[in-house]
Amino acid sequence: MNKPKYHFFVCNSFRLTGEPQGICNKKGAPGLLQYLEEEIIDRGIDAMVSSTGCLKQCEKGPVMIIYPDNYWYGEVTEEIIDEILDALEEGRIAENHLIT
User: Fold this and answer.
1) Contact 11, 54 (CB under 8 A)
2) pLDDT tens-digit map of 7-50
3) What average pLDDT does the structure give for the chain?
4) How are beta strands 64-67 and 71-73 bridged, if at all?
5) Pairing of β 6-14 and β 47-53
6) CB atoms within 10 A of CB 11
7) For helices 78-89 and 29-43, what crossing angle results, to 10°?
8) Is residue 32 a contact partner of residue 24, using CB atoms and an 8 Å limit?
């Protein structure tokens, strides 16, 4: 497997016991994972998508991180994912959604 250009991490609020809890999960992170995966495939973006445990940004959830650029995005929805991916394809940052 070739190393992808980008790696997207979406908080799914997993705890040590493996149980999904917390804000990101309650605000639809599992569905966002599926949507993001489909969008990067449809757009031909060289990326991998992973879910994570709690990223400790609950007040900003759902949270998504893009590596290697280290962009942290908050309050992510399907519409915001579209904006983020549009910006990524255009070589920009979706600054309005960054966690600062």
Assistant:
1) yes
2) 999 998 766 666 667 888 889 898 999 999 999 999 999 999 99
3) 92
4) antiparallel
5) parallel
6) 28
7) 30
8) no
Distant-in-sequence, close-in-space partners of 45: CB < 8 Å, separation ≥ 6: 5, 6, 39, 85, 88, 89
Contact (CB, 8 A) for 66 and 44: no
Residue 24, Cβ density class (10 Å: 0-12 exposed, 13-18 middle, ≥19 buried): buried
pLDDT > 70 fraction of the chain, expressed in percent and rounded? 91
Domains of the chain: 6-97 (3.40.30.10)
Percentage of the chain beyond pLDDT 90 is 72
Whole-number Å distance between alpha carbons of 98 and 65: 10
Residues 6+ apart with CB under 8 A from 75: 60, 61, 62, 97
Q: Cα-flanking dihedrals φ and ψ of residue 26, to 5°?
A: -65, -25
